[in-house]
Amino acid sequence: KWSERKVTIFTPMSDQQETGPTMRRLSQLESVVLWNRARQIKRELKQGVKKPYREVIDISWGDPQGGGIKPLSFVRQVLAACHYPQLLNSDKLPEDVRQRAERLLKECAGRSTGSYTATQGIPYIVKGISEFITRRDGGVPSFPNNIYISSGSQWSLQVPTSLILIISSFFFTGVLTPVPCYDKVNMSIRELGGVTIPYYLHEDQGWELQIEELNRALESAKGVCNPVALYVMNPGNPTGSLPQRRSSFSWLMSEFVSYKKVLAEMGPPISETVELASFHSASKGLIGECGLRGGYVELVNVDPAVMEYIYKLFSTDSCASVPGQIALNLMTHPPQPGDPSYSLYNEVIMTITQLMRVFEVLNSVPGFSCQPVEGGGFAFPRLHLPLNAIHKAKEAGMQPDEFYCVRLLEESGLLVNPGWNFEQKEGTSHFRMNIMIKEETLEGVLRRLVSFHTKFMKEFS
Amino acid sequence: MCKKNKTKQKKIIIITKRTTKPMNTQENSCRIAILHTSNMSQEAVNGVPCRGKVLTLDTMNPNVKRVEYAVRGPIVQRAVQIEKELREGAKKPFTEVIKANIGDAHAMGQKPVTFLRQVLALCSYPELLEDNKFPEDAKKRARRILGACGGQSIGAYSASQGIECVRQDVARYIEKRDGGIPSNPDNIYLSTGASDAIVTMLKLLVCGEGRGRTGVMISIPQYPLYSAALADLGAVQINYYLDEDKCWSLDIKELRRAVTEARQHCNPRVLCIINPGNPTGQVQSRQCIEDVIRFAKEEHLFLMADEVYQDNVYAEGCAFHSFKKVLFEMGPEYSSTVEMASFHSTSKCYMGECGFRGGYMEVINLDPEVKAQLIKLVSVRLCPPVPGQALLDLVVNPPQPDEPSHTTFMKERTAVLAALAEKARLTEQVFNTVPGITCNPVQGAMYTFPRITLPQKAIDKAKEAGQVPDMFYCMRLLEEEGICLVPGSGFGQREGTFHFRMTILPPTEKLKIVLQKIRDFHQRFTQEFS
């Protein structure tokens, strides 16, 4: 791997030491085959090559607008008016749009969305986020000084993570991460020189996070690395699960409760000592503005001396993208009842019917099983693949679910994300599909999927 | 060898990430999901207090302690505080704080270029494509950009490397700029401002341990993103000094001295050049660039060419020469071997669109295996902001002479650059009339970095106060005149010399007042400490 001629060498710390089965290395490549093939097929279709489908449906990313869902008019009108304030001179745009744009422009230096902002974000917008959090958490206070806006939540994850991870020749610093887990999280941790300590979510119990499993994972790290942090995702990605409930309410009535709220309600000393970083983003939820890159982190109970360094690290990247900051403001402070734009804003992206449909279909077909999707916008069904298929995959040098996904793409034009990318229990296969898409598209997706799956299972039985 | 974890009480930080709420958008009464970790509840129950944080200055990644970024450092924080005090009605010798610390043109009143904002509005709210107040060439570009976006929306993720057609346009722009030398879109990586791309490349380049640790050569003075990134990555910073007496020129002899000395304690692998320079504003001559390339080849160094100010060239007889162009004109012996990355941004030049975080890098002669790792690295942050990518597309694809917006566009562009040139000249002129301030010509970029002579008493007073002398000077200037500059110590300078960096961005009339105030302050200060 070391090139003699070239100067450039990429070698993360973790490559220099053999790692056991509980560790993963950054050098493990993702499923490059699948993405390359997808790109190729899209080109071929453009050139008019005949295939059993007219277009590739890409549901591999959590991207509602990429999946055809229209952005909210209010959000886009405000953004347009902020970028090009001449639009405020006519009354073509609704009153509440113009008012919000004016308010935001007032907060931008030189009344321009092209200016840099304060490192933590435009103070008016940061304050708005703290109000949003307090409201959401039933009054638990949130302080603007503890909030940092960044261009996408991944960067706001990397800053505190880089502080807690120590790169040393003598030991690894570890972060407990779930299996399965959003792949960018594991990559971030490894890129920053840490190792991931996997704890397995219990698939048969709705991807439950079990404390005994957390303890087992922690034990397994003894003598191997220094665990310093626990990463949880709520709702889960890719699993869509919410933390365990202690009642018999049906899963359809599940509600989101934040870790911060629960922490506060547990009272001192825990509520004053457990250090917590919570992340949110304008890429998901109702607003779905992935491309604008707006995210934030709220830091709780972090040592004030350390907070100064968090500030310094964020400041080296200047500030978050201003369109992303504006998107966050529109997310935390949407139109209110009585505002001209209110009725349009409340059209829900995804209906409960859609979720039930996915759950029904995936559990009715032999070879599939799927836990209830309680939130998160993805389905992560399990594939029960025949042995022949698994062998064929091995021959082709691919993981079984990767092999399945490549065939799915080739034959039906559906692009999903193989479970292997998210890590999963040894011997199991899954894939992740985005279900934050238009209802008609979802029908088409399910149709293609079932048709392909039936043929595939028959071929390899 | 692995360290055993000896701590009895397991304290852990919980990092949580939430994505969507379930479909029910109403905030009903919440049921509480109780989390118990058996260790923690036992500790609470047993009455043993959970004292001590996991993350403290002692347990923190020690590299971070050395990170400083003066452009947004303590003096700026004090300036923000003073602004707050002014808003609350505090009486001061001034009514506003002039933030001449950061290269932010719009914040200083520069107007955005109309064409750019029209297209951005159209991309943000495509219904405006029906509005006949927008010119046809703006609509054409908006449609093209939207057509290249997932779901025809700038709210969709793009490919991690950036929207393909934008990269193609960037490559064409580079070819045109460099007199036809080919540029491959696959070598273009769009980024969140140039800073993002610079840090990404450094992440790839920095490795090794002890005496084998990567050394990175940076100019003194330099833009402090570089020193901050090197500290964070635990790389070895190798300083090469620009020659203040020769208009901040770069001397190959000095490069050689620096690298030879560095080889004794690290493995020098990277040479960073900022051209036009920040904070010094010097524009490299073509000969100098050739010499640097030759030096990089001889010493086996990766070249990082930070060219974000490439349109900001003012001085007579100076011109921007891209490193890539010069490299290829030196023939295949160099152009097929020297490894390089050049950086550009939408934050500077005539656009000044800092808030959009648009930028790109072009990599030359990068090992294909390394390129594969690079793609993976950039994918961790998913993709650069799409509005910034759209903006970049307009910068590399501006209105042509036969298009409706061309006249206005050129008028606005020329006006901005002409104003900057005038302000550069004015600044140099005024500062050089002040005894105790010497100012090199501002050949390019957006800053002046004059040298200030400080009386010994002032230096001593500063030391008493535990401050670096030029920070002491700048803080006094801030408190007395409401002008925020960045002390030269934030950029690096020769031992025993002092400077400050001031932007030339305030509107001309305001700039005249600022220059006057600094002149008066300097005279007062010198007198006070004489």
TrEMBL record, chain A:
Residues 87-245, 270-449 form the Aminotransferase class I/classII large domain. GO terms for biological process: L-alanine catabolic process. One of its GO terms (cellular component) is cytoplasm. Its EC number is 2.6.1.2. Its cofactor is pyridoxal 5'-phosphate. One of its GO terms (molecular function) is pyridoxal phosphate binding. It catalyses: L-alanine + 2-oxoglutarate = pyruvate + L-glutamate. SUPFAM superfamilies: PLP-dependent transferases. It is found in: Cytoplasm. Pathway: Amino-acid degradation; L-alanine degradation via transaminase pathway; pyruvate from L-alanine: step 1/1. It holds the Pfam family Aminotran_1_2. It is an enzyme of class 2 (transferase). CDD domains: AAT_like. Keywords: Acetylation, Aminotransferase, Cytoplasm, Phosphoprotein, Pyridoxal phosphate, Transferase. Homodimer. Belongs to the class-I pyridoxal-phosphate-dependent aminotransferase family. Alanine aminotransferase subfamily. Catalyzes the reversible transamination between alanine and 2-oxoglutarate to form pyruvate and glutamate. Participates in cellular nitrogen metabolism and also in liver gluconeogenesis starting with precursors transported from skeletal muscles. This is Alanine aminotransferase 1. The gene is LOC115437373.
From TrEMBL, chain B:
Its cofactor is pyridoxal 5'-phosphate. Keywords: Aminotransferase, Pyridoxal phosphate, Transferase. The keyword Transferase applies. One of its GO terms (biological process) is L-alanine catabolic process. One of its GO terms (molecular function) is pyridoxal phosphate binding. One of its GO terms (cellular component) is cytoplasm. It catalyses: L-alanine + 2-oxoglutarate = pyruvate + L-glutamate. Its EC number is 2.6.1.2. The keyword Transferase applies. Residues 119-518 form the Aminotransferase class I/classII large domain. Pathway: Amino-acid degradation; L-alanine degradation via transaminase pathway; pyruvate from L-alanine: step 1/1. PANTHER family: ALANINE AMINOTRANSFERASE, ALANINE TRANSAMINASE. Catalyzes the reversible transamination between alanine and 2-oxoglutarate to form pyruvate and glutamate. Homodimer. Belongs to the class-I pyridoxal-phosphate-dependent aminotransferase family. Alanine aminotransferase subfamily. This is alanine transaminase. It comes from Sphaeramia orbicularis.
